[in-house]
């Protein structure tokens, strides 16, 4: 499968709202959090899907280790 490149504008469409999948970017990689219960409705502890959460994940109690379990959807182009 060829990975897709997402711009910030494209990523913002994957906000987990109105039937859209929920994607987040961390360190240039885009992950699908749609099937993670904690991300229901596209929100998780004040964070919103469709965004670059590279800085936010550093402040989270679980850190980046949780990303290993998520499907990679592509890369974020700035």
From TrEMBL:
<feature type="domain" description="Cytochrome b5 heme-binding">
    <location>
        <begin position="6"/>
        <end position="77"/>
    </location>
</feature>
<dbReference type="Pfam" id="PF00173">
    <property type="entry name" value="Cyt-b5"/>
</dbReference>
<dbReference type="InterPro" id="IPR001199">
    <property type="entry name" value="Cyt_B5-like_heme/steroid-bd"/>
</dbReference>
<dbReference type="InterPro" id="IPR036400">
    <property type="entry name" value="Cyt_B5-like_heme/steroid_sf"/>
</dbReference>
<protein>
    <recommendedName>
        <fullName>Cytochrome b5 heme-binding domain-containing protein</fullName>
    </recommendedName>
</protein>
């Amino acid at each position: 499968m060829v990975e897709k490149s997402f711009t910030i504008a494209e990523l913002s469409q994957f906000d987990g709202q109105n039937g859209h999948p929920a994607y987040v970017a961390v360190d240039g990689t885009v992950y699908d959090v749609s099937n993670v219960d904690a991300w229901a409705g596209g929100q998780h502890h004040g964070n919103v899907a469709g965004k670059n959460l590279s800085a936010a994940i550093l402040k989270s109690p679980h850190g980046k280790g949780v990303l290993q379990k998520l499907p990679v959807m592509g890369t974020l182009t700035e």
